[in-house]
Amino acid sequence: MSSISNPTLSTLLLGHKLRQNQNTKNGITYFPTFRRHKIARCAVDMPYGGNAPTFPRIRVWDPYKRLGISPYASEEEIWSARNFLLEQYAGHERSEESIEAAFEKLLMASFQHRKKTKINLKSRLKKKVEESPPWIKNLLNFVELPPVEVIFRRLFLFAFMGGWSIMNSAEGGPAFQVAVSLAACIYFLNEKTKSLARAFIIGLGALATGWICGSIFVPMIPTVLIHPTWTLELLTSLGAYVFLFLACTFLK
């Protein structure tokens, strides 16, 4: 108590302690430093999901309202809303699960709607065919829809023949290309019908029909749209390629 009340004595004692604790090295005096102790924070003090924000509509029942989109939103809008929300609330597990659950529910509903629409479309077409006149039913009995791969392969073949004929239009007529196209059409028909005679008749009929239609409609095309090297024979052969393609692809 006496040292505290006497400022002179307190100053002398403090100077004496500092002199005891000081460290002199190379003429430079160092005083001891005090370490700072870090206070460990408890994991309970951290918010759920770290610092990630919480999705505010996590308990909204309607998936459209949960994602913040219209009930008439397209699949692209649903995907965009889902990606945006997942990016905004990334790191919060419950928010991500809520967003994904709403997205999956809407995606499943969209898939079921497309499936139902497709079934309804087939039913409507079937009903239209049943209600059509007898001659249309008889005509449809000669038509079939092959796989998409077959359609594209044969379309590429006849398109190649058409391009080949156009490239050689200045040198000569497309007689060789027409003959190759006719032979390909007969081959495909024979492979389908298992009858060479039937395939030959259908192929020649398709060629004749295409040639006649081309001879009728090609002169109606304005000359401005026709290249100077494109002759009537070339344009008529292009129409024949179309009929040959249709015959060997869609006829039974």
Structure notes:
Keywords: Membrane, Transmembrane, Transmembrane helix. GO terms for molecular function: protein folding chaperone. InterPro entries: CPP1-like. Pfam families: CPP1-like. The protein is mainly alpha-helical. The protein has 2 domains: 83 residues, Orthogonal Bundle (Helix Hairpins); 103 residues, no CATH class. Helix content is 65%, strand content 2%. It contains 10 helices and 2 strands; from the N terminus they run ααββαααααααα. A two-stranded antiparallel sheet has the order 1-2. Strand 1 and strand 2 form a beta hairpin. Helix 4 packs antiparallel against helix 5, helix 8 crosses helix 9 and helix 9 packs antiparallel against helix 10. The N and C termini lie far apart (120 Å). The N terminus is likely disordered.
Helix count, per DSSP?
10
Distance between the termini: 120 Å
Total number of strands: 2
Radius of gyration: 43 Å
- How is the biggest beta sheet arranged? 2 strands, antiparallel
Q: So what's the overall shape?
A: elongated
Low-confidence stretches: 1-18, 20-49
Class derived from helix and strand content: mainly alpha
Mean pLDDT: 76
Order of the strands making up the biggest sheet: 1-2
Tally of individual domains: 2
Helix content: 55-70%
How much of the sequence lies in strands comes to under 5%
Succession of helices and strands: HHEEHHHHHHHH
Transmembrane segments: 173-189, 196-218, 230-251
InterPro entries: CPP1-like (IPR021788)
Keywords: Membrane, Transmembrane, Transmembrane helix
GO molecular function, one term: protein folding chaperone
